[in-house]
Design goal:
transmembrane, 56 strands, six-stranded antiparallel β-sheet, Tyr-kin_ephrin_A/B_rcpt-like, 40 helices, alpha+beta, transmembrane helix, 1298 residues, 17% strand
Length: 1298
């Protein structure tokens, strides 16, 4: 026999690479050994190219199976990666199609890659796929597991199922379609947990009801839908009534056949409860508070038990397929039933074993296979029941009209019985068979009539003949819609297992280096191959089992429904199917419910034990509630509800804590990092690691001690850390802060370098900074050096601006602009040097002793310490303490500079002392400090110099000069040189402007002051005369004056004279004045280089426009004692009259008026008369000896008679002036006397005499104006006068009309 199979294998092209069957560890060989069986209906399997040229006859692991094999292997290459698949179905005729198609899919994937992979398919059974350990260190981790949908929740709770969302997303991207869109609606309930797809549906499990239409028709019982057009729906009560009616009228075994194997009674019962609006459990609460409570003891459940189950069993309307009772061991009563009925109390943790009551026997020797009398409860579509006996469908047909229409399918075969012939017909996809005397002939008939024509032509012949014709055209069995359109729907799905706690996610399916990703990738590839609707594996695994079911794909189910109307109720049932636990969340204890069978307990108690429905269902609910109750924490070590689904042991393992306790299952969560749990427990929290210890990973059973140098300062640390910057570990539990002045280096605190300090918790040496004292010390050094450098100018005699030098109470006073920096208590004589004073006396002797008067005033002394009494005036220049005196004489901020110097040197010494103490710190910063100090000092010196210079240049006089200079520039924007002589005159207005603008500076000072302090500064930029700068004019009068006269008197003298001479505006009268008209920077040239006749004086006097000389006299008539004035007087007498006509000669001017006009003071006239006798030109003085010698020589050479003649002329001129003054005085007195006479006051006539001479002159009156040659206002204080000219004056009394 084995040789025959081998020959077939060779002929069909099946090579050595084929599946090997195993029982335990014993190899059973390949299909070619002949020990394998052909898979029922495998002739209907789709063919593959790798099966050979005649695939339907191939002998391979696709079309053959080894009965009761425990596993199959494919390939055995060394070092090949093993791929493992678990499936639950046993290897028998009933379900072998499932394993065969799984093997075909695996072979199709890997038969060309057996050098890389070896494949193992384990037949684990239902308990194995649900409960065997997987993916642990001691347990395998298959690539794919096929397990029941009710078993999936247990694996999910144990965290042993890989979520498939990311794989399905990859599927969507690759196919542009969602895989789950083709799943039945119930798949969301069965395989979708908490937003994740945990499995892919592969097999369907549905419950159906079939009926015999002939029986129901003969009994006149209404046929159920969908074949009864008048009856769209029917109920469970209808099923009960119809089944019992058929049982009683036919006297058959039972009107409804159903077996109680596994948990069919539970599914049957819960389906009825669900149809009535009830459920197995009722959900209470949400989220963490969610709980389940058994609800089959509700009125709905009581009604189902009382009104359906109890009557249908007691009336024997429902029996097993074998013709016996629905449950085994009830008739006669078994010991198990007796013990059950005598049970006094129910132990919910260990209820009675109900497995012995299951009826697995489907064989009834008294009932031909495939025949049912009325109704049957089926777990699928059984094709064998749809093959009917055509004799029951026969009616006479005339032989002459008969023509064979059926086509032979296969040659006649020897068959032992009719059942084998039926199986052959179905396998070879024929619809009709003829069985006669052990010979089986298969045919394909197009119609029902064609099948009937195969029978003999007469009724007698049909009855007498041994020929039997069976065909699907002659079936009596149809499938009905489920009562109330509800049925149980379960199934099996494909999952990828994983290690508990593994969060590994393989997003890229092409990763091959990672073992986990490789396993998951190949698992997903296997799932895709098995569930691909374009390939036959899923379709054949569902349809070609003994109990066929629609594949769990909407597209495939609709195609089956369209192919045959017999499938319509089946597909409809699948669409309306619901799991037993619907609508509640699937609980992990589903397998326990199937094992304990609490509903069966309730049924048996009520039906056979006379226990009320409420009580029995209450007992069932106690068991069901116990399955989903919370863990009993005090007794967790022995409580089955406290078992950890991860490892099957009580409580959460070490390193985890109880996270939730719902639905009878505890869920443990690994301790978070930083916490631990040393032993198994059901505590809801983990303990934080104590200080000094840490737990780096989740799920720690203990905490580790921190390594050396690291600390965990607070409980619950996930790692040990270095101490914070600036801290060092004191032990593993705490850190010590580095104190001030230290820094962290490794695991210890180190002192900062000498002179440095640091804040608390300094992390490194860079945090060491100079001590605050050092910073202040260096800052003090900077200040000290800056102060020393600023003090140096004081010891070298820092110039101080002179604000004023004047005579006060007979003592010459120096007033400085700001402090003079001479301290009050100088122990030795103090000498200063004056520079740039513009005063010849101060320039000749520029070193003076001084005496402190005020902070800004000093007395100028002689060398012997006597006060200087000379009237020296200047507001210009600078003073400096002589360097040799500055040590004891200078002051800084009023403090002797020597004391300040000593103080600064002491600070410097202290700094050096502290620098030595602070060592490195100061050594590092000293260069910087000195650099900053020097740079700062230089900067301060620059700023000090800038401030000093601005201060020096901003004396009150300088500021006033600046503004006046702008006026000069406005009047004469571009000063130009002018020829020496008469063209350099200035107007009375220009003189007045200068005087009025600087009145508060000039005061009673003389021309020396004006020239040195005003004229020279204004003219220095141009090196011109003041007249050229202010705007020159042609001289109309030559002014002779003495520089020692007060400038105020000088101005008023010229003002009075100009007012008396001007016909229109006196301000326009022009004067040639030596100090204003001479270029003070070319004095020698102005003096004619030693020749008076070439001097500017002479040139101005000789000018044709010059009307005369105005000699300005003071009270002491000093001009008559000066050489230059007498020389000018000489020129006025001897030279000018000879060269021009209309020359007026000499006018003697005083601040009160012109003497010739009689408006001068009497005392001035008297003093002038006294000076006349003293006039001696040869005795006159000059500021410069050279000038006097030059003038004396000029007199001797040019004037006949020499000095005697000149002196005589001077006296005559003065006498003439005096005579005119006396006459004016007499006229005035006479006028007053006449006025008094007119007013009635007798006044004795006066004989006016002055200086022993008669000076009375005639007078004329007109228009109220007295015309006299002269009139002195000072002589008549009660009168008011106004001068109209040299001989005119208006006089009036105060308060009267003029």
């Amino acid at each position: 026999m084995g040789r025959v199979w081998a020959s077939w294998a060779l002929l069909l092209g099946v090579g050595a690479a084929d599946w090997i069957a195993w029982k335990g560890n014993e190899s059973q060989g390949a299909p070619s050994t002949g020990a394998w069986r052909r898979v029922p209906r495998s002739g209907r399997f789709e063919a593959f190219a790798w099966e050979g040229p005649n695939p339907k006859q191939a002998v391979n692991g696709y079309r053959y199976f080894f009965k009761d094999a425990t596993k199959y292997t494919l390939g055995n290459a060394t070092n090949a990666t093993e791929l493992v698949v678990w499936q639950p179905f046993p290897e028998n005729d009933r379900d072998s199609a499932v394993g065969a198609n799984i093997r075909a899919a695996l072979f199709n994937l890997y038969h060309e890659q057996l050098d890389k992979f070896k494949v193992t398919l384990h037949n684990m059974g239902w308990d194995g796929v649900a409960k065997n350990s997987i993916c642990t260190s001691n347990a395998p981790c298959p690539n794919v597991i096929l397990l029941g949908s009710s078993q999936l929740s247990d694996r999910v709770v144990a965290d042993r199922v890989k979520p498939l969302n990311h794989f399905m997303e990859e599927y969507l991207r690759a196919n542009l379609a969602r895989m789950q869109d083709d799943f039945p609606g119930v798949a969301d309930y069965q395989y979708f947990y908490e937003g994740k797809w945990m499995g892919i549906p592969f097999l369907s499990d549905v419950r159906l009801i079939a009926f015999n239409k002939t029986t129901l028709f003969n009994l006149n019982i209404s046929i159920p839908p969908p074949y009864n057009t008048r009856r769209q729906e029917w109920t469970w009560q209808d099923l009960l009534d119809n089944a019992c009616e058929a049982t009683e009228r036919l006297n058959c075994t039972a009107g409804l056949l159903a077996n109680s194997d596994f948990d069919e009674d539970f599914k049957f019962f819960t389906l009825m409860v669900q149809s009535g609006g009830g459920s197995l459990y009722q959900q209470e609460g949400e989220g963490q508070d969610q709980s389940l409570r058994c609800s089959i003891n509700s009125p709905v459940g009581v009604n189902v038990l009382k009104n359906f189950w109890k009557p249908i069993i007691t009336r024997k309307c429902m029996m097993g397929h074998n013709g016996g009772p629905f449950w085994a061991g009830v008739s006669p009563p078994s010991e198990a039933l007796k013990d059950l009925l005598q049970m006094k109390s129910l132990n919910v943790a260990h209820p009675p074993n109900m497995t012995s009551f299951s009826n697995y026997n489907y064989t009834d020797p008294n009932r031909p296979q495939g025949h049912i009398d009325a109704y049957v409860w089926s777990s699928g579509f059984d094709e064998s029941m749809t093959v009917g006996d055509c004799r029951k469908q026969w009616w006479p047909i005339p032989y002459s009209k008969w023509s064979p229409q059926c086509k032979p399918g296969r040659a006649q075969m020897l068959m032992g019985n009719l059942s084998e012939c039926k199986q052959a017909m179905l396998e070879y996809e024929m619809d009709t068979l003829i069985f006669e005397r052990g010979i089986c002939e298969l045919l394909t008939c197009p119609t029902k009539e064609a099948t009937v024509s195969l029978l003999p032509g007469t009724a007698w012949a049909v009855k007498a003949s041994k020929r039997q014709v069976f065909s699907t055209w002659c079936t009596e069995v149809l499938y009905a819609n489920m009562p109330q359109n509800h049925t149980f729907l379960g199934g099996s799905g494909l999952i990828i297992p994983k290690k508990a706690g593994d969060r590994h996610n393989c997003h890229r399916l092409d990763v091959t280096e990672d073992k986990i990703c490789l396993r998951e990738k190949e698992g997903w590839k296997i799932i895709l191959e098995l569930s691909d609707t374009d390939k036959p594996f899923m379709k054949q695994a569902n349809l070609l089992k003994q109990q066929s079911v629609p594949p769990p794909r909407l597209s495939l189910a609709e195609a089956i429904q369209a192919r045959s109307k017999l499938w319509y109720p089946v597909v409809t049932a699948m669409k309306n199917g619901i799991p037993s636990q619907y609508p509640n969340t699937p609980i992990p204890e589903s397998a326990d419910i199937e094992e304990m069978k609490p509903v069966r307990l309730a049924m048996l108690e009520t039906i056979y034990g006379n226990v009320s429905e409420e009580t029995s269902l209450g007992h069932a609910c106690e068991i069901l509630d116990d399955l989903v109750r919370p863990c009993n924490a005090p007794r967790w070590e022995t409580d089955v509800r406290c078992l950890n689904p991860f490892d099957g042991l009580a409580g959460c393992e070490a390193g985890s804590h109880l996270d939730s306790d719902q639905l009878g299952i505890i869920r443990c969560r690994p301790c978070e990092s930083g916490t631990y749990r040393p032993d198994r427990s059901v505590d809801q929290t983990c303990e934080p690691c104590p200080v000094g210890r840490y737990a780096a990973k989740r799920g720690s059973g203990n905490c580790s001690v921190c390594p050396l140098g690291l600390v965990a300062q607070s409980p619950g640390q996930v790692a040990c850390f270095n101490c914070s910057a600036g801290q060092t570990p004191e032990c593993s539990a705490r850190c010590r802060e580095c104190p001030k002045g230290t820094y962290q280096e490794g695991f210890q605190c180190v002192d900062c370098p000498l002179g440095y300090t640091s804040p608390m918790k300094s992390p490194n040496e860079t945090y060491c900074f100079p001590k605050a004292s050092l910073i202040w010390l260096n800052f003090l050094l900077v200040l000290d050096v800056c102060a020393l450098l600023l003090l140096l100018p004081s010891f070298f005699g820092k110039p101080v601006a002179v604000q004023d030098i004047y005579l006060d109470e007979g003592k010459l006073v120096l007033k400085t602009w700001g402090s003079h920096q001479v301290h009050r208590w100088a122990p030795l004589p103090v000498k200063i040097r004056l520079t740039h004073t513009h005063h010849y006396l101060l320039e000749e002797k520029n070193v003076f002793r001084v005496k402190w008067r005020d902070p800004d005033e000093l007395y100028l002394l002689q060398d012997q310490g006597e006060h200087i009494s000379k009237d020296i005036n200047t507001s210009w220049g600078r003073m400096r303490i002589l360097p040799r005196c500055s040590l004891w004489a200078s002051a800084t901020c009023g403090i002797p500079s020597l004391i300040v110097l000593v103080f600064l040197l002491v600070i410097l010494a202290l700094y050096l002392y502290w620098a030595i103490l602070n060592g490195i710190g100061e050594a590092k910063h000293l260069p910087w400090s000195l650099s900053i100090a020097l740079l700062g000092a230089l900067g301060v010196l620059v700023v000090h110099y800038w401030v000093w210079r601005n201060h020096v240049l901003s004396t009150p006089l300088r500021r006033r000069q600046g503004s006046f200079k702008q006026r000069l520039l406005k009047a004469n924007p571009n000063p130009q040189p002018t020829e020496r002589g008469p063209d350099r005159a200035i107007t009375a207005e220009q003189i007045g402007e200068l005087f009025e603008y600087f009145r508060d500076f000039i005061r009673r000072r003389d021309m020396h002051y004006v020239t040195n302090n005003l004229v020279l500064p204004f003219t220095k930029p141009y090196h011109l005369s003041y007249a050229e700068v202010a705007g020159p004019s042609r001289a109309s009068w030559f002014v002779s004056h003495c520089w020692s006269n007060a400038f105020e008197d000088f101005f008023h003298s010229l003002q009075n004279m100009a007012q008396g001479k001007a016909c229109f505006d006196w301000r326009k009268v022009t004067f040639w004045i030596c100090s204003f008209s001479n270029n003070q920077f070319k004095v020698q040239e102005e003096l004619g280089d030693g020749d008076p006749l070439k001097s500017s004086f002479y040139l101005a006097l000789q000018s044709p426009e010059c009307h005369g000389t105005a000699m300005v006299l003071d009270n002491d008539c000093v001009p008559l004692q000066r050489s230059w004035c007498l020389f000018e007087l000489l020129q006025t007498r001897y030279v000018a009259p000879k060269l021009k006509s209309g020359y007026e000669g000499l006018l003697l001017c005083t601040p009160n008026g012109v003497l010739q006009w009689g408006n001068a003071h009497v005392d001035t006239v008297v003093r002038l008369a006294e000076k006349v006798g003293e006039i001696r030109l040869e005795n006159a003085e000059a500021s410069r000896v050279e000038d006097k010698i030059m003038i004396d020589a000029c007199v001797i050479e040019t004037v006949p008679g020499g000095f005697a003649e000149v002196n005589k002329f001077a006296k005559e001129c003065i006498k003439t002036v005096l005579d005119a003054a006396n006459g004016s005085f007499q006229v005035r007195v006479q006028e007053l006397m006449q006025r008094l006479d007119r007013e009635g006051s007798p006044v004795a006539p006066l004989a006016p005499r002055l200086l022993g001479r008669n000076t009375f002159r005639s007078q004329q009156h007109y228009s109220g104006v007295i015309k006299t040659q002269h009139l002195q206002d000072h002589l008549l204080p009660p009168f008011r006068t106004k001068v109209h000219g040299p001989n005119e004056r208006e006089v009036w009394l105060p308060g009267s009309d003029r």
